[in-house]
Amino acid sequence: MGNTTLRPQTAPAGTTPIEVDEHVIDVVSDSGEGAQKCGQSLAAIAARSGNGIWTVEIIPAEIQPPARSIAGASGNRVRIGRNRVTNGGDAADLVVAFNDQVLAGRVAAGELKPGCIVLLESMWRDDPDPAIAAGYVSVHDALVADGHPVYEIPMEAECLQIVADARRGKNMFVLGLLCHVYGLDTELADEQVAVALAKKGAAVVETNQRLVRAGWQWAAQHLDVHFRIPATPPKQPQIVVSGNTALALGVMASGMEVCAMYPITPATSASHYLSEAFERVGGLVHQAEDEIAAVNFAIGASYAGKCAVTITSGPGYSLKQEAIGLAVMGEIPLVVIDVQRGGPSTGQPTKAEQGDLLSAIFGSHGDAPKVVLAVADIEDCFYSVITARKIAEAFNMVVVVLSDASLANAQQPFQRPQFDPEWLAPPIDQSPVPDGLAPYDWDDRTGLAHRFIPGQPGGMHTLTGLAHDRDSKVAYDPEVNEDAIRRRSLRLAAVARTLRPPTVTGDQDGDLLVVGWGSTRGAISEAVERVRADGHRVGALHLKFLQPLAPGIGDILGRFDRVLAVENNWSDRSDDPIVDEDNRRFSNLAWLLRARYLVDIDCWGQVRGQPLRPGAIAHAITARLDNERRTRR
Amino acid sequence: MTLSVTECLLAASREHHDLDDYAGELSRWCTGCGDNAILAALQRICRDEQLAPERTVFVSGIGCSSRLPHYMKTYGFHGLHGRALPVAEGIKIRRPDLDVFVNTGDGDCCAIGTAHWIHAIRYNMNLTVVMHDNEVYGLTKNQTSPTSPRHLTSNTTPRGAYLEALDPVSTTLAVTNVSFVAQCVDWIPELVHDVISAGFHHKGFSFIRILQRCPEYLDGHFDQWKSDPERILLLRHEDGVEPSPELSRIYRNQIVHDPADLRRAQEIASDRDPIPVGVLYRNDDVPCYEDTRRADRHYGPAEIGQALEAEFDRFAIRPANNNHDGGGR
Fold it and tell me: Is CATH 1.20.1250.20 correct for B16-315?
């Protein structure tokens, strides 16, 4: 106990809060101790106060990991900022841990900043099991030795004064602590507890509100940790949802009526919410017997009705490839959502990676042109599905929407959407087909054709996955086959004609352009701003459409001396001894852009199962720029 | 497109369909192929029932059987190998107004599509499923199928098939929610028509296995049954099929089998000599998935908008009602 120098028992009177622009706060516990609810509530209170927030779930891979285990950390990371927050940020500024072992796991994973403040449940120090007590002391002492201010807090003992089972109370006690540390309003906390626990009844709400106040008071009496993150109260109503819920809301708002799926992490929570809510807008979720059945079911529903959707993750996407080719061949509108995870094979089901871009674009055998777009943040999850449905039905194409595990369970407030009937799919056409019109009456210029839907008199034909002519008759003729492939391909050019050139943020020309796609948008632009603050001329380009690519990208690339693709997927490291320019494997987007624009694009990425951090990206950018400067000299 | 709704309805009501109205392309099956008998029966059923061609969909997978939709003049969906059933389910889920038939083969249904077959029985959607079983792969040119008899020589089993055949009828009868199972042989066209028609009239998943000849790769395979009517066991019942007097004069080996009797059906199902033909099992009380899911409700923009607003309310963060700036109190 001799070296636990930072265990103040009373807060110095009148401590002035330290004003900071942002803090990253981790709350970790064993599974089932409620750290996630604590983190989410903290985020909601901060958001209502007017702070920018971003939350990331900390999820163990197992359903019931052993208690007090390094791999068992469950909880939430909350990034609270003065301004809008666009990503999970770097490492934690403050961590609350319900036991030493889950904390040790976070330390080992490099999740704590140097000097990160630690609020630690102290009950383990006096545990009757000497191994546990020793483990606690060892973790504690190591943290102190590393320079972390560690505050030992008797959470269990304090909670037992209010509830019989502290496992069901600690999270709210901690919420109260954190409200005090960050100067958040306890009335807002009371309201938040009432909202979060409304289903459990007034008595439970009241008990939890007492726990929150107990935590707040304990902190007021014992802690000298006090921060203030300035906030601007929001003027517009906002909603806060996870990326997966936003995708599901997008499905509902797009007017689609059928979602066919098979359970797969990390996509399934979108279907959980849809299963509950979709019927309220007249839709339904069909849980199929497998991924292949799910996509074929969606294709059947689309063929005879409005565009349908199937939601999956990488392994499921691989299984659906043949059917996606069928939808391409038959020109059946279809939305496929792939919430990517670590791959290949079963890979890292709960972890973030952007490894499916090329399989989304080039997957399925033969030439199977489809639209591929990626979501950039939580709000974008919602609107992208609406856009995807529109494109699918306007062009009779498959539209793949790529999200990933870093957005799936992350939360961010955004402006409450204003429902627009234009979002919805129109009723299906059941009018007679005029004489002489063929099911594949491809337009010469755009390749677009009508879609005849069962029920339309005069439109009878057999849709086939075989090569076919305008009448949908099986075609063995070389001319007909090539002509049909040409027209299906033309539709991608037609989609491209509807896209606007993307915009560059940061510098519009200069030393380096960082190009990214999908969930890394926030982290990349934050990194670019940091590097620009150091005097570099750097721009950021985020691509929403990956196929077709928007016009004007080539010009943008040409305005910068160098281009760096930054992605959460694998690229060979140039400094590996046997890697050279002839055999280096590039990151997904780098392959794509190099082929399209004949620009010598470099790439940087990580496959650590975590979202890319702005600090790591900034470091990579700086290293590239420094390297460039050295080579020039 | 210029017809009014009333004109359309009038046009539909006065339209009478004869057999030609259901005839698509000329079939490309081999001479003597049992698929032709199935096609003829299906066209007759469409005519007898006066199905509107635009409201009828034939869905198939891949294989000789699965070319059938091309030979109909209705809507058709010729999809992927093994995947006809999920496509048909997807069509039916929001379009219960359409009559949906599925044509699948022994490879399509009992090999690559097995998972979908088993689960389709359980969903019990109102589909008429005809399984063309010639006990061999034809389109890929003579390979052993799951229903091929043991010792059958083929391009993949030149020394004879190693395994006993899978019995699709027994298998179907063993699955939860089974509601209609029938069997027939292609060389009794009248009965092919009657069992498929009984399946069509059954509301639920009607599984009809037709044993059919493949003159190209299994020539003579069914000759011993075809040449001896005594080796056909005709299952008759007022709730199943009742053979005509003419048919009864030829096929005298008959028993009365109540299709409500699942245990008896399971006993009969795996018999191969004589081959039982007729309706083995029928249960009208099994709920259909599309009814359980009440999937035919269609919501307008006003209803969807209102429901969405309620969802947004659930996730709303109301701005705090005073000027909290995040500072301490």
Answer: no
